[in-house]
non-specific serine/threonine protein kinase
Amino acid sequence: MFPLLAPFTIFKLALLTLQLQAIPITLTLSPCKNSCGNIPINYPFGIEDGCGAPQFRHMLNCTNDLFFQTPSGAYKVQSIDYDKKSMTIYDPAMSTCSILQPHHDFVMTDIQSAIIPPSQDTVFVLLNCSIDSPVLNHYKYLCFNFEGHTCDELYGSCNAFRVFHLFSNSSPPCCFTSYNTVKFMSMNILDCTHYTSVFNTNNLKGVGPLDWFYGIKMSFSVPDTGCEICKQSGGTCGFDTDTEGLLCLCSTSNNSTRQCGK
Ligand SMILES: *[C@@H]1O[C@H](CO)[C@@H](O)[C@H](O)[C@H]1NC(C)=O
Ligand SMILES: *[C@@H]1O[C@H](CO)[C@@H](O)[C@H](O)[C@H]1NC(C)=O
Ligand SMILES: *[C@@H]1O[C@H](CO)[C@@H](O)[C@H](O)[C@H]1NC(C)=O
Ligand SMILES: *[C@@H]1O[C@H](CO)[C@@H](O)[C@H](O)[C@H]1NC(C)=O
């Protein structure tokens, strides 16, 4: 009987089938976006307000790409590893081996410093430090040996940093240091004209600066708030935007305090 149907009816039938298929998908859609570009967004993160853990509220911004918002700017998120609980971000204004840009401060809120600080294997490299820099004097101990790498190596192998060699025969001092140094002293106080940062530094012994991983790796902690129970019931963890009380978001039309169906 199919051949007897007018083309228009077939079209309507097809449309109806499509709609019927679409309905269950719509109903099971989580009220929270679960990706931004190709980066999955899971607890404790959220893009829409009310999704994820309240401690991580307003930290991510999805405008085409995913950005990590701090008081010093929006940093492009390159990846989030939920197993290792780490997120790598890139500061577009930072110098790297291939581009020289004036320093600016990397500032995080107190909450960010507490729950998503730069990882232990992220090293900040202060470049072209003046001889009066605190890290060459009183705070010398804040600089450490980074897998045997030297300023000379950095200034010599990176196109961007060769300029530091140009005007003097000796290379200006640099300092390999940790996030705490830039957290407690602004770039102006540190008195070094440029900086870069490198992550996964445990694997960089004997590896030249051209092959380092430039960016900042953050380690996040996941608040232990019973999100598992909510997830197992099919919900998504979120919170009330007025009270920041925890919610289990079950569908676009129903929330629960602990788990869905209860
Ligand atoms: C459920 O919670 C979300 C996030 O707080 C909120 O946007 C939404 O309006 C709530 N829905 C209902 C039906 O309470
Ligand atoms: C999100 O990040 C972009 C990119 O830096 C920025 O232009 C925009 O203002 C941010 N949006 C919000 C709501 O903060
Ligand atoms: C290096 O630092 C000195 C001041 O200590 C500054 O005059 C010079 O311009 C800096 N070099 C570059 C390439 O920015
Ligand atoms: C929300 O879900 C609970 C448990 O399934 C149910 O008792 C309640 O009637 C639902 N509320 C709405 C507005 O659908």
Notes: The CA atoms of residues 147 and 205 lie 5 Å apart. The pocket of 2-acetamido-2-deoxy-beta-D-glucopyranose (ligand 2) is lined by residues 61, 63, 67, 69, 74 (CB under 6 Å).
